[in-house]
Request: fold
Amino acid sequence: MRNALKIASVLAVGALALAGCGSSSSSAPAGNGSSGPTSSIKVGMAYDIGGRGDKSFNDSAARGLDKAKADFGVTTQELSAVAGETDQQKAARLTLLAQGGYNPVIAVGFAYAGAVKTVAAQFPKTNFAIIDDSSNLQPNVANLVFAANQSSYIVGVIAAQASKAASVGFIGGVNVPLLQSFQAGFDAGVKATDSSAKIQDKYLTQPPDFTGFNAPDKGKTVAQGMYDSGADIVFAAAGGSGSGVFAAAKSSGKLAIGVDSDQYLSATPDVQSVILTSALKNVDQAVYDFIKSAVDGKTLTGVQTFDLKNGGVGYSKSNPAVAPYEAKADAAIAAIIAGTVTVPNTIG
Reply:
């Protein structure tokens, strides 16, 4: 009872705070000038662990929000998750946004699945979107999902070509089905390109511990172990923990592959050169398209899939070092789109 009263109190205070500051976000860029576009739409964004500034998954979502804000003049409010929180706390965050008049509300990450299910039922006139989860088919929910196994397959093709030792690694942030789809695609791409290649697959944490998405020290330690064991390129599908993988690659004189965003562009100069490519998940595109649908008065609902065919996933070419491997990567993309190659989505 004490916890329930505490959460109720937080909700009441938070709703008042959101109502008072609803026209801006403490972490978002400044709003449009008076001469820019304006919209009555108020968009709430609930980030996963790491929030804006993780240089990966959350930042990609933030770019979509920023573009929508610039193009349509929507009002925004951004809130972030913290490590170790419960579904009840996530539901409280979404409730704050819904009570504050934000519609639509976007939940960034599959960890919000339970919270979205609860809160969407309580606010049937508010539209919600959740990224990386397709389990919720309520009429006011859009499920924005990505064929991450496909982009992971492509960087697997690149890794197998780039590895001089025929030994590579995969590091997942948390051992959950979504991250297993990254592993399945990556491993398949490596083996399709070099069947003799050795692959090390490891996860930083096990659920319900989701800190593996924002634990650079763990990422560095596990990656260093892989490099010491012979791998010369490691794919990090681990959110903010990827920075530790990049640091290990730099100190070992080896290579790494980023995820979600083009991490070559966002990395600090000292590690930029080791990021050969990134498996892109264009969360920004999904977020932007969803907000645009709300602005247009035709808010998306149901499962919306972003894959190689519609440009929802891909790989980055910012590092010139990836150029020698692009031909085989692009051929693999064409084969997947044509249906002549089917990428596995589960391990085993």
Remarks:
- The radius of gyration is 20 Å.
- DSSP finds eleven helices and twelve strands in the chain.
- The longest helix spans residues 2-21.
- The chain has two domains: 2-146+283-306, 148-281+317-338.
